[in-house]
Structure formats: structure tokens, C-alpha cells
Amino acid sequence: MCGVVGYVGTRNAVDTIISGLSKLEYRGYDSAGVAVPDNGDFLIVRAVGKLDNLRKALKDVKTTATAGIGHTRWATHGKPSETNAHPHKSTHIALVHNGIIENFSELKTELLGLGYKFSSDTDTEVLAHLTEEYYKTNSLLEAVRLTAARARGSYALTVMSAREPDKIVATRRDAPLLIGIGSGEYMAASDIPAALDITRDFIRLEENDLAELTRTGVKLVNKDGRDVHREPFHVDWEPEMAEKGGFDTFMLKEIYEQPRTIVDTMRGKIVPDEGKVFFGEFDGLVPSIDKLERIVLLGCGTSWHSSLLGKLFIEKYAHISVEVDTASEFSHRELPLNKNVLVIGVSQSGETADTRNALRLARARGAVIAAICNVVGSSISSEADYVIYTHAGPEISVASTKAFTSQALTLFLLALWLGEKREKVDSKTTSGLLLDLLRIPDKIKQLLDNKDEIKRIAEIYKDTKNFMYIGRNFTCPIALEGALKLKEISYIHAEAYPAGELKHGPIALLDDSFPVMIFAPDIKVQEKIFSNMQEVKARGAKVIGVFSERNRANFPACENQIFIPDCDKEEMTTFLTTIVAQLFAYYSAQALDKDVDKPRNLAKSVTVE
Ligand code: F6R
């Protein structure tokens, strides 16, 4: 799980590559490196740690190269170190890699037998030497093609030869790689933001495709070496959309983007006055909707939590049974599936290996496969039969925020669409819900305007070692998501439970050092959850209650209260309680001076199982 870049054009290659890598650090940041051609050899600079360390190492390096490759790493084989950092080199070849080469030991034995010397503990180095070996009698493109054909596992590669300093060869399998098409300049990169400085036109390489980039254009071949054409696509993202836009961190920027991303997610999908929801992307499903036996939602982490919300929405409005599983566990189950089961993978990146593999398995067992993704052209979206994009824009912060609300909203709209097609929900009900939904962006803005109160409370609890989050019904997934956010970025231990479960065990943990955040905005469950609050207080635990504004007058006594704007429909409170949970985690981490955008041990896009 790393970021790769390869650039050829007219700009200073090192600067362009570093700028590209800075947009890919979310994919890994334990070391980084660049290679540019230098008088028949390579100038290679690598550094352990974040990209800034590489910038420092490059400070006094002078080069006029206008082509090169670069890498930001998340270690899989070999600890983070300068020798394990990419690019890796053989005599004439320099190469960077994202993925895992499963048969690297076997290839290494063969290459050692041929006299190659290894200087790293990585699986990647075999690819550099093998390409060198094939390059003795083949073009660079052909040498990479032959190397890729020998590799088992996943890879996105950018490769250069010191003998051909104006050429990059790129290829991929089970790892993302796009080609940015500029004017007289081209960039192969793991993700779109890396190339936005030079273009908004891209080609997505299909599995096993190879691209040869020179200043005069891009040649594409498939795994058999035959010329292929891939349709370019255009993205509207402004380069600054991938930047921090004046916020201290990407995470805060992305939390603040939610009033807009919510609108972008529903854009073109709803006519509130008529109570209509459109999902053109799923139209192909319409003839078989009545035969649908059930839906299975799969995701990981935050996307699993949004799936849990999706289950509640779909069951309520479409009256279809929904199962939710973490994608990694789904792969171990022997769940009977057939063509009347719709399996939907939910993924921000569209590259999560657990989700992708679970979907492949579901397809092999006969289910219809759909995806809810944020990244256009991602692996999961390319493989699914039906895709809905969430249109939340690039999410750079490792901790997911705006992707969650966009996924939850997409699932909510899907529930209404399915409900209408199955005649389980009438247009009046849908209209009421959609009109309430339209008010959500402004209510989020109101909450964001009151962020100081959440910040103040977070600062009170910053030295707490443990936290409990509880909710009921629609706030249960929010409790899970809130606890995940808190542990990910502040490293405070946090547990989340359905409020009713507390008394079945976890309440044993509680005392005056173990505060409880209780989400109770929604009238239907308030009575029960207020009883849970009494149980908690009786154990001496401090309570932070998240209530609706309308309850300001009669909320039960607790140490701290956070009020969200009122909503007519209980479902809508989920979008607001989510913002509270995100801000609370954010300000807790900030109070502890943590690197919010790049929490330890994590990476944005988890492309290994
Ligand atoms: C949490 C987080 C992760 C991701 C998970 C799935 O803040 O970001 O838990 O949600 O790795 O990623 P996607 O949605 O890209 O499949």
C-alpha cells in the first residue's frame, strides 16, 4: 500500500514528482524516494519517514532531469528503512512498486543463481533485477511485460532505464494506476490528485495493461503485448480541492466540506416535491427487484459503519432483509448466495482489498454485484455490475469523514428508491423525508458554527484513557463510528455498544474515570436511552449527552451536553450526530497534539488483505 508516480515532460522532474507524492502520502508515509536519470545512471534519493524528510534530503541536490519516478511507502516486506525505500535499482533499471509480490522468494532464488545481488528486504527488488534480465534482449516495455507475467500478486509499477532517460513504463494488476495526459507531459500515478497539477484528463489502465510514456505520447498494450485503446476520462477536481484550502488539516477541511458534499451526493437524484428518487445507475436492476430475496452490504471500518446505517434505512423503507458484514469476515463465510441476492460493496477508495475480494467471492457464488464508491474508475467500481458514486471529492485525511456521510446518504436514497420500486413507500412519505434532507446542509453549518463548544468539551476529557460510546437504533452505528474516529486519531481507547447491551457486560468497566458519550437525539428511543444514562451515572461515569435542541428544556442531568439542530425525521439526526462525533475526535486529537491527518500505523487505502 504505497503511492507511485512516474513523470515525463518538460518540468523539473524532482519537483513535479515530490508535488505528486505529496498528494499520495495518504497511501503510506513510512519512507519515500525518487530516481531521475543522471548521465547514463540514476540519481536516487531516499529517506525514512514522511515526505518532508525526502524534501530535506533533496535540498542540495541539483538536477535538470525532466523525467523520473517516485514513491511513498507503507511497508509490507522489510521494515521502513532507507535501503528498503523505493526506488529499487538493478544495473540499468530503476523501479517503484505498490503491492505485494507473492512469489518473490522463488524469483529471488532464480536471480541469485544468475548472479544478481540484493540490497533490500523487500519483495520489490526482484522486479528490478528481473526487468534488468529481460532488458538484456528486449525493449523496456517488453522487459516489464515479461517481468509482470512472472510475478504473482499485486502491483502498480513505474519503471525507467538509465539508457532511455526519456521513457517511463507503467503497469498494474490489482493495484490502482492512472495515466494523466498533459500537453507534452504525462504522469503515471496511483491516484488522480497526484497529477492534477499537469492535467485533468486521465486513462485508467485495465488489469495487466502496460503504458509506455514519452514526451510524444502514450502507447498502451495489454498483457499479450497487443496495442489497446482505453477511453480517456475527464475529472472536474480543481488542484486546490486536493489541498488543505486554508484549514490546518485535511481532516478538518473534509469535516467542513460536508454541507457541500451532501448536496453533491444527492445532486440529480431527487425531486423532493414529487417524492421521487432516481438511481439511473441501478436501472438495470429494476426488472428483478421484486425477486430480490435480500441485500448484503459489505465494507471495512467507516464504510462498514455506514453499511450498518444503510441496513436500517433499507429495511425500514424498502422492506428487504439486509445483512451487513465486514468484508474481511465475509470472505470466510459459506453464505449461500444466488442471482436474487444483491451484494453491495461500500468503499470510499474503491481499492480496499478486503472489499474487492469479498465482492469477487460473492460474484463467484452467483450474486449480483454492486458498489458504492467515491473514487471514479477505482478497481471495485470497475469490477461491479452496478456502481453509484458518492461524489464526495478526494478524501485525503486518513480518517474518513465526508465519505461516511456521503455513503450513508447514498444508502438512504437507495432505500427510498428501492421502497418506491417495491411499492413499500409512498411519494408523500418520500417527499417529507427529502424536504427534511434538503435542510441538513444548513443544519450541519449551524453545528460547525458551534464547534467551540465541542472543542471545549473535548479539551476537558483529553487526558482520559478510556471512553464508552453508546446509541440506539440510528445512533448505534454513529456510536461505533465516533469511537473509531477517537481511537484512530487521538489513540484514546474507545468502545462502542448498543446502549441496551451495556448492562449485559460492558457496564462492569465503568467508573468515574471512564466517561460515556450518549447519542440520544431521537425521540422514539429517548425514554430507553435516558434509563441507560441513569445506569451509567449510578456507576459514577461522567456523561456527555448528545441531544436535540428541542430537548434543551428537559434533558436529563449530565456533565456535558451537546445540542444538535432539530430534525423532523429521526433518520436525519444521523448526519448531525456524525458531525459531533467527528469534531469531538478531531479536537481530542488536536488537544493531544497528534498528527491528525496521518495517524500512526494506518494508511488511507488498504490494498492488502
Ligand atoms: C476510518 C477509515 C477506514 C476505512 C476503511 C475502508 O477512518 O478510514 O476504516 O473506512 O479502511 O476504506 P474504504 O472505504 O476506502 O474501502
Which assembly state applies to the chains in this document?
Answer: single chain
Number of strands: 26
Overall, the morphology is globular
Strand order of the largest sheet: 3-2-4-1-10-9-11-14
Low-confidence stretches: none
Largest sheet: 8 strands, antiparallel
Q: Which ions, cofactors or small ligands are bound in this entry?
A: fructose -6-phosphate
Helix tally?
A: 18
Rg over CA atoms, rounded to whole Å, is: 25 Å
- Helical proportion, percent range: 25-40%
What gap, in angstroms, lies between the N and C termini? 10 Å
Strand content: 15-25%
| Nearest-integer average pLDDT | 93
Which structural class is indicated by helix and strand composition?
A: alpha/beta
Name its key features.
six-stranded antiparallel β-sheet; binds fructose -6-phosphate; 26 strands; 18 helices
What does this structure look like?
- This protein has 609 residues and is α/β, with parallel strands linked by helices.
- Helix content is 34%, strand content 23%.
- The strands form five sheets. Strands 3-2-4-1-10-9-11-14 form an eight-stranded antiparallel β-sheet. Strands 5-6-7-8-12-13 form a six-stranded antiparallel β-sheet, with helices on one face.
- The model has no long low-confidence stretch (mean pLDDT 93).
- Fructose -6-phosphate binds next to helix 8 and helix 16.
Break the fold down into its secondary structure elements and pairings.
Layout (H helix, E strand, L loop, with lengths): L2 E6 L4 H10 L8 E8 L2 E8 L2 H7 L9 E7 L14 E2 L3 E6 L5 H10 L11 H11 L4 H11 L4 E7 L2 E10 L4 E4 L4 E4 L11 E4 L5 E5 L2 E5 L11 E2 L15 H7 L1 H9 L3 E2 L4 E2 L16 E6 L1 H18 L2 E6 H4 L10 E7 L5 H12 L3 E6 L5 H5 L2 E4 L12 H20 L5 H12 L1 H10 L1 H10 L5 E6 L4 H15 L2 E6 L17 E4 L3 H16 L4 E6 L11 E5 L8 H19 L18
Parallel strand pairs: 17-18, 17-19, 19-20, 20-21, 22-23, 22-24, 24-25, 25-26
Antiparallel strand pairs: 1-4, 1-10, 2-3, 2-4, 5-6, 6-7, 7-8, 8-12, 9-10, 9-11, 11-14, 12-13, 15-16
